[in-house]
């Protein structure tokens, strides 16, 4: 057997085993994180219901639930009274820059800031972000797409791809996330519906 072929086969096998280990590590880590989140939320809400927490601890607890300090305690409290609170909280944190603070809007309903209240404004922004995302994705993979057409060697394609992917791929991700912020905000504003929760109301 050709030594180079054997080497490539061994390298591919090692890479597959490494990916398998990474997959299970991520899976186990996620499962552990979910259990930790459950224990924390249960203990935190029990402490609130017993009235044993200092206001500082309450604020820090709500920030830990939202995994951010950019959203106020009152906003988080309101979000947690909505149907599907985990999904709503994630949507609110992601789209926060486009939304009014809950306390600033009459009726404590989530709404877009005035400059984004018009649906056509949001639609134009989404179209812009999607277009820029498509352009930068194309640029990120341009060496693979155009390398053979332009007669580049495999080595030249690999080098160019290693440069273009991190440079243009980062911008593609940013524009994709910007579009997702608007989409998730629209979904939250449209579908918000309350349910009664004694634990959240009591502070």
What does this structure look like?
- With 203 residues, the protein is an all-alpha fold.
- The protein folds into 2 domains: 1-38; 53-201, no CATH class.
- Helices cover 72% and strands 0% of the residues.
- It contains 8 helices and no strands.
- It has helices spanning 3-50, 55-66, 73-79, 85-95, 119-140, 142-146, 154-191, 198-201.
- Helix 4 (85-95) crosses helix 7 (154-191) and helix 5 (119-140) packs antiparallel against helix 7 (154-191).
- The chain is flat.
- It starts with a helix and ends with a helix.
- Mean pLDDT is 81; it is low at 196-203.
Features:
8 helices, mainly alpha
List the helices and strands and how they pair.
Elements: H1 3-50, H2 55-66, H3 73-79, H4 85-95, H5 119-140, H6 142-146, H7 154-191, H8 198-201
Q: What is the radius of gyration?
A: 24 Å
Overall spatial form:
flat
Give the rounded overall mean pLDDT.
Answer: 81
In total, the number of domains comes to 2
| Computed structural class | mainly alpha
Strand content: under 5%
Order of helices and strands: HHHHHHHH
Distance between the termini: 73 Å
Q: How would a textbook summarize the main sheet?
A: none
Uncertain runs are 196-203
The total of helices stands at 8
For the secondary structure, the number of strands is 0
- Measured as a percent range, the helix fraction is over 70%
């Amino acid at each position: 057997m050709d030594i180079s072929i054997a080497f490539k086969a061994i390298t591919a096998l090692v890479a597959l085993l490494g990916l398998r280990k990474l997959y299970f590590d991520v899976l186990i880590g996620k499962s552990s994180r979910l259990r930790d989140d459950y224990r924390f939320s249960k203990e935190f809400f029990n402490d609130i219901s017993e009235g044993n927490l200092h206001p500082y601890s309450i604020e820090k607890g709500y920030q830990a639930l939202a995994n951010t300090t950019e959203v106020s305690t009152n906003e988080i409290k309101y979000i947690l009274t909505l149907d599907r609170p985990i999904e709503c909280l994630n949507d609110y944190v992601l789209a926060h820059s486009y939304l009014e603070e809950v306390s600033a809007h009459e009726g404590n309903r989530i709404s877009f800031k005035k400059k984004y209240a018009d649906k056509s404004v949001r639609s134009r922004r989404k179209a812009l972000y999607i277009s820029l995302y498509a352009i930068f994705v194309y640029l990120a993979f341009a060496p693979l797409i155009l390398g053979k057409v332009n007669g580049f060697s495999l080595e030249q394609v690999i080098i160019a791809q290693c440069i273009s992917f991190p440079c243009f791929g980062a911008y593609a991700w940013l524009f994709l996330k910007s579009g997702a912020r608007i989409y998730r905000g629209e979904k939250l504003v449209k579908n918000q519906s309350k349910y009664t929760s004694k634990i959240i109301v009591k502070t």
